[in-house]
Amino acid sequence: KMAADTSVDILQKVLENEILQSTKVVEEHLDAEIQKLDQMDEDELERLKQRRLEALKKNQQQKQEWLSKGHGEYREIPSERDFFQEVKESKNVVCHFYRDTTFRCQIMDKHLTVLAKKHIETKFLKLNAEKSPFLCERLRIKVIPTLALIKDGKTQDYVVGFTDLGNTDDFTTETLEWRLGCADVINYSGNLMDPPFQSQKKYGTSFTKLDKKTIRGKIYDSDSDDD
Q1: Name one Pfam family in it (predicted).
Q2: Got the DSSP string for 3-70?
Q3: Domain 73-183 is in which class?
Q4: Any alpha helices (H) in 69-165, and if so which ranges?
Q5: Residue 67 to residue 78: CA distance in whole angstroms
């Protein structure tokens, strides 16, 4: 018993020492930063201030430019012709090919509405698949919903049904955000190696297997059970 107590004491002391050491490093770093600022003359401080202001101004201008191009909201575009125009003027575009009668499209809409407001660096669009047969054929869209993920005018990736989103109708907005981050079509700040739906599994979320149905080139709903 005493030996066990002793080893616990030693461990505690080691830990305390570690904490003290890391605190000391942080304090020293802060001291150095403060000293650096103290040693700066008026001109250097002024230049630093100017650089910060310019960066802020540039960010603001970039934001305004995005908003003027229709970023910041999830919009429906009326036709295939609009699709080409919209894609041409923005670096990052997410386009949801949907159908009114497909329940899973409404689930996708809910998450995309949230993400469009959060990620104004990317344009979020939706297009009725039934009104865009040429595009659906060209982009080989067979299952609804499908998201086309477009960078610099080229379709780089697709999110087909909910297969990549944990295979469940209850996927979170964070899961879709992670998937778009994997395609580098949004600025993703989380860890790409740690998909959010993995933590869902821990809490026993029920997963439903999705069916992908494509027969003779026809477009099928990912939530339909009939042939």
Answers
A1: Thioredoxin
A2: HHHHHHHHHHHHHHHHHHHHHHHHHHHHHHHHHHHHH--HHHHHHHHHHHHHHHHHHHHHHHHHHHTT
A3: alpha beta
A4: 80-88, 103-118, 133-138
A5: 19
Domain ranges of the chain: 73-183
Binned at pLDDT 50, 70 and 90, residue 202 comes out as: very low
- DSSP-derived pairing of the beta strands 154-160 and 146-151: antiparallel
Q: Backbone phi, then psi, for 55, in 5-degree steps?
A: -65, -45
Neighbouring CB atoms inside 10 A of 173's CB total: 15
CB 83 within 8 A of CB 95: yes
State phi, psi for 126 to the nearest 5 degrees.
-135, 145
Alpha-helical segments (H) within 119-203: 133-138, 173-182, 196-202
Residue pair 125/86 in contact by the 8 Å Cβ criterion: yes
DSSP 78: -
Structure token pair of residue 202: 């821990």
Encoded amino acid at 155, one letter: T
Q: Tokens 């000293």 map to which residue? A: 35
Q: What is the reported pTM?
A: 0.71
pLDDT band of residue 209 (cuts 50, 70, 90) is very low
